[in-house]
Amino acid sequence: MKKLLSVLLAGVMTASMLVGCGSTTDTASTEEATEATGTVAADKVYNIGICQLVEHVALDAATKGFEDALTEKLGEDHVNFDFQNAQGEQTNATTIVNAFVASNVDLILANATSPLAAAASATQDIPILGTSVTDYATALDMEGFTGATGRNISGTSDLAPIEEQAAMLVELFPDAKNVGMLYCSAEANSKFQIDKFKAAMDTYGITATEYSIADTNDIQTVVTQAAEACDVLYIPTDNTMANNTEAVDNICRPAGVPIICGEEGICSGCGVATLSISYYDLGYATGEMAYEILVNGADVSTMEIKYAPNVVKEYNEEICNELGVKIPEDYVAIATE
Questions:
Q1: Treating both helix axes as pointing N-terminal to C-terminal, what angle do 279-294 and 57-74 enclose, rounded to 10 degrees?
Q2: pLDDT digits 0-9 by tens, 28-60
Q3: Would you place residue 310 in the very low, low, confident or very high pLDDT band (cuts 50, 70, 90)?
Q4: What is the tens place of the pLDDT at every residue in 98-123?
Q5: Does 3.40.50.2300 match the CATH number of domain 46-158+278-304?
Q6: For the whole model, what pTM was predicted?
Q7: Is 314:274 a contact under the CB 8 Å cutoff?
Q8: Backbone angles phi, psi at 83, to 5 degrees
């Protein structure tokens, strides 16, 4: 009996020691895993397809923010990004997202309007998040929705307050009589912004004329025409114009015609001032939305479209100095490399 009791006690003590040691190690490992990857399984890797319309400062920043957010939340060993550049072509965007669907990625990031439209046509099952998209109703040809799309699509919008951009133009150029609005007619969200800006100009009694290009081949002719006819030009968040700021600047700066821009990247290339958002922050917020979908099971169809929380008055110091544009103290100079 004593022998049996001794054996039992020894077994209990050994088990207690093993449980104690195992508990300490497991807890530490769990805490480390949780800190690095949240609730992601140790062997889980999420495959994310990224279709970006074209490479330029704003879209690049949005993609970087998105990737940084997911990498920070998941850990770099738990996420794989397949980045594809559509080179500004809708047909390329369609080919890219169809390949993503065929490979059954976990989520698609559509960076800009054309990739979003392509992704929406390619799948109704895989979650799609857009970013750098101005108006989702226009991009998806949907009417009557507010907040959430009710389908496998959500994301973030880069819409800055158009009325405030119009007020900026009037503040800086109170004597302006004729304003030219430059945009690419192939970009539906650009037209959406142009219509709102024109309405805002009407309230100031300023004539606002549209100057649209079909593609980059039109830039020289159309921009020259606009610069000759107008006191000030306005460019919305237009990807084609953003990718050709040097060509625009080479026409407008020598002509002494200032440009108010829809975002920082365009302004740094050819503008005098902008009321801009942070595209990096926009992309980062989209990455946080992706995490909620992938890890926490959030329903993308009920996730409301998010907007940039802050806008900043910025100016291009070099062009302002050259054109003699006086900037109020509440503007911030765009950082130059």
A1: 40
A2: 333 333 334 456 888 899 999 999 999 999 999
A3: confident
A4: 999 999 999 999 999 999 999 999 99
A5: yes
A6: 0.78
A7: yes
A8: -85, 130
162-276+312-333 shares the fold of 46-158+278-304: yes
Distance CA 63, CA 7 (A): 64
277 — alpha (psi -120 to 50), left (phi > 0) or beta?
beta
Rounded distance, CA 49 to CA 321, Å? 43
Q: Please write the tens of the pLDDT for every residue from 323-334.
A: 999 999 999 999
Per the document, the length of the chain is 337
Instruction: Given CATH 3.40.50.2300, say whether it is the number of domain 162-276+312-333.
Output: yes
Domain residue ranges of the chain, discontinuous segments joined by +: 46-158+278-304, 162-276+312-333
The residue ranges of DSSP E strands in the chain, in sequence order, are 46-52, 79-85, 107-111, 128-133, 153-157, 178-184, 207-213, 232-235, 259-261, 273-276, 306-307, 312-315, 332-333
For residue 188, what are its two tokens?
Answer: 């539906």
What per-residue confidence (pLDDT) applies to 69? 98
**b/e for 77-112, b at 16 or more Cβ within 10 A?**
ebbeebebbbebeeebbbebbeebeeeebbbbbbbb
